[in-house]
Amino acid sequence: MFEAKEAHTCPACGLRLEALSKLPPSYDALHEEPDEPLPPHMEPLPWTYAGRGRGPLLALAVLGLAAFFAPWVHETAPELRDLSGFGLARRLGWTWAPAVAFFVMIPLVLTRRSIHKMRGARVAVAFLAAVALTTVAMRLLFTPASSPLRPVRFAWGYGLYATGAIALLALIAAAFFGGKVDDLPTGQQRRGDEVLH
């Protein structure tokens, strides 16, 4: 009825004028097309929900980050030093992979708040766990070479083994992330006369 800049209030009743696109649907429109009920597996869960593998995966990701800063290598030759995953990563760039994988896993798991989204993230979480596990396996299988001119003596630290064990557990837990979709209870109030397919 009015142009956008013509009037800010109705001259007859004094109500503030708004664009139609900013108004909520009318009472009649809501009853003509009621919202379809959300399927139980798509209902949002609380941020603190720890079931269906969400809590264990978060705990494993935090433990994996902690294990990255634990001793990975006890070197006795050519130098006397202990290297954590962080210290080793500063020398070998590819050994950052477990820290990055566990760091990315935390928000990935934390932001999956429905069973549908948890199940959809299984492959991504499993891939991140596999990246960490592969890095540990590569480090254990391909050791630094020793020579008569440069002897290399070392022992692997508990941090490397812990990182590998945590990555393996996370890989197993990722396979069950979100659980099954069989007969889920709903948290929504239902009228009872809806047709559910």
TrEMBL record:
Keywords, sorted A to Z: Membrane, Transmembrane, Transmembrane helix
Top-level taxonomic group: Bacteria
Transmembrane segments: 55-73, 93-111, 123-142, 154-177
Listed name of the protein: Uncharacterized protein
